[in-house]
Amino acid sequence: MGRVAVLVLLLACACAADAVVTDGLLPNGNFEEGPARSDMVNGSVVRGANAIPRWETSGFVEYIESGQKQGDMLLVVPHGAHAVRLGNDASIRQRLAVARGAYYAVTFSAARTCAQAERLNVSVSPEWGVLPMQTIYSSSGWDSYAWAFQAKLDEVALVIHNPGVEEDPACGPLIDGVAIRALYPPTLGKGNMLKNGGFEEGPYFLPNASWGVLVPPNIEDDHSPLPAWMIMSSKAVKYVDSEHFAVPQGARAVELVSGKESALVQEVSTVPGWTYRLSFAVGDSADGCVGSMVAEAYAARASVKVPYESKGSGGYKRAVLDFAAISNRTRVVFQSAVYHMKSDGTLCGPVIDDASLVLHKQPAGRRLLP
């Protein structure tokens, strides 16, 4: 079923929720509609919970204009001319009409200002997550993050909260470009035991966000911004698109930017003793990541290291891993063997795309499963 048909179905399920959210920026998601001057003090501090149109604020919130100075630092805004800064214990909230039971991914851009250990709590009641911001992945200082949830009600409240308490109450992250995308749980395609093997289903890409979207670690693939895939360990992977990066196949892929500290994982049903073949593409995203890369793939007791000499201008090669299943469930794992860094000091790594898993061989006398 196509995305348009599924969207029509979601709208029908929403019944009375006429304003059900659709893919793209949330209402005033780029904060270009600002508070009245009478609702700000000291030039930028927001006064009043409903001063910013379509948003409810609490705590120390500032309305930032691109080019505004903070000491010797110039604050740059990636989407339009305005953003918000969440100071001590500050939050922004927006109520969303959604389709109950459906899955969504929220995407937003964030930049650290003066605190070194900033983090954000993102929640859609009753679910919540913590996004650490200690690692900066883009040279601009802005990163885009994705976080997924399943709607438990027809109307939910999205909250982005800075739980930090700094000596300077204005020390907190900048937020801009808050968007949403409905996720459609992928099914098994013909000739591939992996779901979403081409990574075509995933979070929304913000316009002009040439740094991709970070997908943080999670422990449940049902709520992953990359449906059917889990991000294991402690660091994020980067979701890239063909509009801003080189992608081996289709429109989207995953860049492994965190070395062995992050792994891309999918669990599949297998038959012990049967042999399977995993094939995939390894390349670079044409983002200036130059050098000798090594992507690793694991399944059951087998593994393969795939060297790729990157010139940072795009390209890829195919790789294969044959393995014998040892249980009824097998985890397919991708990760980068080492950290890589661009000339500007930002992290990068090999791209994984077009992953496919097929039955390669079964023991003699065993009937092929349908």
Supply the key terms.
single chain, 370 residues, mainly beta, Jelly Rolls, 2 domains, six-stranded antiparallel β-sheet, 1 helix, disordered N terminus, signal
Describe the structure.
- This protein has 370 residues and is mostly beta strands.
- It folds into 2 domains: 3-182, Jelly Rolls (Sandwich); 187-361, Jelly Rolls, CATH 2.60.120.
- The protein is 3% helix and 45% strand.
- The protein has one helix spanning 3-14, and strands at 24-25, 40-41, 45-46, 56-58, 61-65, 69-70, 73-74, 82-86, 90-97, 103-111, 119-124, 127-132, 142-150, 155-162, 174-183, 213-215, 230-233, 237-241, 252-255, 262-269, 275-284, 290-299, 302-311, 315-324, 329-336, 340-341, 347-348, 351-361.
- The longest helix has 12 residues, at 3-14.
- The relative contact order is 0.13.
- Mean pLDDT is 87; it is low at 1-18.
CATH topology of the largest domain: Jelly Rolls
Low-pLDDT stretches: 1-18
Biggest beta sheet attributes = 6 strands, antiparallel
Q: Span between N and C termini?
A: 23 Å
Strand content: 35-45%
Quaternary arrangement of the chains shown? single chain
Basic shape: globular
Q: What is the CATH top level name of the largest domain?
A: Mainly Beta
User: Structural class of the helices, strands and pairings?
Assistant: mainly beta
Fraction in helix:
under 10%
